[in-house]
Amino acid sequence: MRFLHTADWQLGMTRHFLDEDAQPRYTAARMEAVGRLGQVAHEHGCEFILVCGDVFESNHLPPRVVRRALEVMREVDLPIYLLPGNHDPLDAGSVYRNPAFVEAQPANVHVLDGKEVIAPVRGVELIAAPWFSKHPNHDLVGAAVEKYAAGPAEGVVRIVAGHGIVDVLSPDLNDVAAISFGHLAGAIADGRIHYVALGDRHSVTNVEGSGTVWYSGAPEVTDFDDVEINSGHVLIVDLSDPGVPVIQSQQLGQWRFVTVREDLAGPQDVERIFEVLRELSNKERTVVRYGLTGTLPLVDNARLEAGIEQLREVFAALDPWERHMDIAVYVDDEQLVDLGVGGFIADAATELNQAATAGEEDARDALSLLYRLSGGGK
Q: Which structural domains are found in the chain, ordered by start?
């Protein structure tokens, strides 16, 4: 028996660093990912799809986003089970109670409200731990497991669907809503549950190397690669042998959020930055934030800025990571001569150079602009 484990679709998500051209393409990509994961599920003989929370970005989305999402799910043509998470909890204003959802909900899409054990296919039980508010005051997954503490009948495979942080991964030791890994491990050892499908963590994660407690990660990237180390995947879960789940991670996402950190000291380093950026493929679906430090002559800094300005046009986004930007610019006498200016402007350039050397960012930027506008170096 196989099923597809996924989570954190967050349909309707926007990213502040995407402009009016890139944002619609990113929005469409998240919707298209649902169709692709349906294809993956069919290719691997999965019998249903389990979405472990945060299907939607929030409970307050335009009706067209909800209706389009449901249409894509309908076309998947497999049973799809949706677990409300912290972004889309099953509260009074839930998207799952919204007329746009209720009226357009296809027969193959089911919302897990946790009221009872679900049997998605013969010989399989599904226990769900949905969120009913954004701030639960206890371990929802642990409570769901204990609700059916007697365990399944002989030969029945039991899956638990949850959302949230597992305590062994949480930096907050006092998080009352954290999922207890020890509790899950005990229930697995007792044979009361066989696989725990989780959402909330956007990187594929096998918790404590257990083999039975997994985060699927998000199917499309939502953050930079130093935060989401292994995002853009779904999991194909084979429970033919309940005691030994076989997990296969499948790459699905088409977008990348890349962090570039470099220390610069001269023209060869500037060229290296250009080479790194040029070698990135699928630039129209790649977001880059760059953090640059070091010391550069004015001419090299001007070339760096001009080159990045040109490359910015081909990326989905290419922006400085401000808190990791620290370039000191200096100007020698030869470069000041290259400016080809005199009188008041030359005096101003000398004053800007002194301020830039002292670390004033505005002075550095002004001096670089002056150098570029004057055709310095030509």
A: 2-251 (3.60.21.10), 256-373 (no CATH)
